């Protein structure tokens, strides 16, 4: 119905029209873990029951809290109401994830909790385990409960009270009227000057009011006509108010001061569990007074100053965001303001380095902070509103909203409980064993530790799916590659291999590949996504064949490795290709060749160790030491080679001026067949999608392609999204890859466009040669393929586009 999301939000959800309407909402979901969601749910529900208990007993059991509540007009009358406190209709806790783990609540909002629009709208957006999926139903059930608590009537009239000068809340009232519409309920939108009392009844625009549903601050209730009389008729049960004005008790930020005092004193009015939750989730708080000025000035970075009745982040001062001089001025302002303030512990919020801000078209990666508004109905966490900002304070002029879900736990990081000294000792032992047992000297990448001790566990069912998907996709690719090979004169240019098509015609095996690696990601919903295939030069063998086992032994890991059959499958596939090649001419001497790059040498050396017991003479060296013999074969160290395994991309021969060696592949058989350059091309997936549209694949093959391969095309328009990445056709190690928003111009040719996968990320402690730091990294599971069969996994963690600067972490099966 609507062409743009902003139109739907404007007309269906009464969003305020503004110049920012296109960049207020981002459809990319934000995900929290199951553990974080459980922390929010358990702690907020227990705290809400506690606050309700305090509000209900403010004149007896918790009477001592009255002195913590600053004066405002009608305070005494409200606190001494005799009518039993009804259920709170709605409550919102402003919630955050701590930088070092755990959750906390910066404040409670009992008085006028907004964000209903955001939660309703995001509940309709796509997100795995969408937290807001049932919010609308729970909202309506809470409303039904509110009606049932009223004296029975045929029809009810509800006044929706908000400040008409605050457009956001006024617009929410339109939304509430639409969402809560019932045949026996009439809604009237009113401001503070539209209510009055006559004959012990409340009226709004001459209609008798049964319920006042309000988004209006209690401390400003003196602005409401006849408010003292409204309280009197409320006391007599002639009108209901939701939320009851006594929720100012929970709204008052000095409640934190009171709760902390009770907790420190181990006051018996609180349970042990309540005290534990207060200590864990509420920032330490005390009342501001002049005697604490020196402490406040000296501990700037540890403190936040807030007005007891503050709203919209007005007059909130975060010391760590101030210079010394600014902090002095802010403290002086607090002294002179005449308002009551609290001193609150500064809690560092976990930033998201991998989140996105919208600009109307693209989504742009940014560092942002998530304010998670936990909404509670009937004492149950019922939905969460995510408001993002680039700073600790959320303000209307630069915040944006996203869906929120619970991320899949298919992948977990497992850390050994070691102090830094123990960790370094163990890391040295593992990397030294790798050095002596496997000739591995790459324990650092630049100054970062390449070998990580925090290993990954993969759910058993996800691992089984990965195995099956890898093998099935390999078969589909084999079918595709065969068609392209048989029509190479037509497809070579599309694949970017026009100058290689002649050498491809020397084909001596029908095998798909000798050894390849499919790079899989897992998105936040736990879905496997195939990003690309490296058909020619798959790295990671030394890690997968040797270091996995060393780490398993040293870390006492009692889980299965994905690489237990990798060696035998490599040998099996090598033997199969040798059988095919022996039909062409006898194979005696085999060269294993690479560039001089150290990682390439690890791979060729590892492959030699894997194959050396076979009945062939193996010669290991670099491609640059090779020559062409008189018979037209490749020679290394004066040995004429019958076959080679070239850990060297076929397209590089021309780039580096070695066309003579390329031509020699007509006579020296390539164990990784030259035709594998077809599936190596990034355009291969784009061609698969074209074939998909032309009906080349059967129903099952088509389903697998669309399930696992992100939509890929040579034409950006066919993606029908602004959220894509651009890849050069023959790039490797992440070189030349751009996100859509980074482009100044659309590349003319030799690039493909692929829908971006929102890859599941993990929090990881990165160590360098001096220190350590927390980072958000993305696991990529490189599934080895021998022929068309899954063979093992090489796992690495890197930034969103994984390049050669990454961390190796073995994956084991849960």
Alpha-beta classification: alpha+beta
| % residues in beta strands | 25-35%
Helix amount: 25-40%
Q: Quick one: how many beta strands?
A: 42
Question: What report would you give on this structure?
Answer:
The chain is α+β, with helices and mostly antiparallel strands and 814 residues long. The protein folds into 3 domains: 5-254 and 351-406, no CATH class; 288-345, Dna Ligase, domain 1; 420-813, no CATH class. The protein contains 24 helices and 42 strands. The strands form 11 sheets. Strands 2, 3, 15, 16, 17 and 18 form a 6-stranded antiparallel beta sheet that branches. The two termini are 45 Å apart. The model has no long low-confidence stretch (mean pLDDT 92).
Summarize the structure.
By secondary structure, the chain is an alpha+beta fold. The chain has 24 helices and 42 strands.
Keywords for this entry:
814 residues; alpha+beta; Dna Ligase, domain 1; 3 domains; 6-stranded antiparallel beta sheet; CP_ATPgrasp_2
Strands, helices and their partners?
Layout: H1 5-12, E1 30-32, H2 34-56, H3 75-79, E2 91-97, E3 103-109, H4 116-122, H5 135-148, E4 156-162, H6 167-179, E5 185-190, E6 195-198, E7 201-204, E8 207-208, E9 211-215, H7 227-235, E10 240-242, H8 248-251, H9 255-264, H10 272-281, E11 285-287, H11 293-298, E12 303-307, E13 317-318, H12 324-337, E14 341-345, E15 352-358, E16 363-377, E17 380-389, E18 400-402, E19 404-406, E20 411-414, H13 420-438, E21 444-445, E22 448-449, E23 455-458, H14 460-486, H15 488-495, H16 501-504, E24 516-522, E25 528-534, H17 541-554, E26 560-561, H18 566-582, E27 589-594, H19 598-611, E28 617-622, E29 626-628, E30 634-636, E31 639-640, E32 643-647, H20 652-655, H21 659-664, E33 669-670, H22 677-680, H23 683-693, H24 699-708, E34 712-713, E35 724-728, E36 738-739, E37 751-755, E38 762-767, E39 772-786, E40 789-798, E41 807-808, E42 811-813
Parallel strand pairs: 1-19, 4-5, 4-9, 9-10, 23-42, 27-28, 27-32, 32-33
Antiparallel strand pairs: 2-3, 2-16, 6-7, 7-8, 11-14, 12-13, 12-14, 15-16, 16-17, 17-18, 20-23, 21-22, 24-25, 24-39, 26-42, 29-30, 30-31, 34-37, 35-36, 35-37, 38-39, 39-40, 40-41
Domain Circularly permuted ATP-grasp type: 117-350
Keywords: ATP-binding, Ligase, Magnesium, Metal-binding, Nucleotide-binding
InterPro entries: CP_ATPgrasp_2, GSPS_pre-ATP-grasp-like_dom
